[in-house]
Amino acid sequence: MIDIIARLTSARPSSDVRQRAAGAIATMVGAVVLARAVDDKRLSDLLLEAGRQALGSPVASECERTHSADN
User: Fold this and answer.
1) N or C: which end of the chain has fewer CB within 10 A?
2) The 3-state secondary structure of 22-49, one letter per residue
3) What is the rounded distance in angstroms from the CA atom of residue 54 to the CA atom of residue 64?
4) Quick one: 48 exposed, middle or buried, by C-beta within 10 A (0-12, 13-18, 19+)?
5) Mind telling me which residue stretches traverse the membrane in this protein (predicted)?
6) Which pLDDT score is estimated for 6?
7) Cα separation of 31 and 37, whole Å?
8) Residue 63 DSSP class
9) What is the value of pTM for the model shown?
């Protein structure tokens, strides 16, 4: 999975790109886990938005769109 994300940002993933991809995955998973763990819709949305902003990446937005379509 890390290599897939890394390839979205670079044709040849370096160790630095792979590290950033791993951080992006951890941020996305953490945001989704926390958002699902709370009962407050506004807090859930805030956590998801915070994860997106932390990444500042179109990849995060695309992942969120996919997550929203699944629910």
Assistant:
1) C
2) HHHHHHHHHHHHHHHHCCCHHHHHHHHH
3) 13
4) buried
5) 21-38
6) 65
7) 10
8) H
9) 0.63
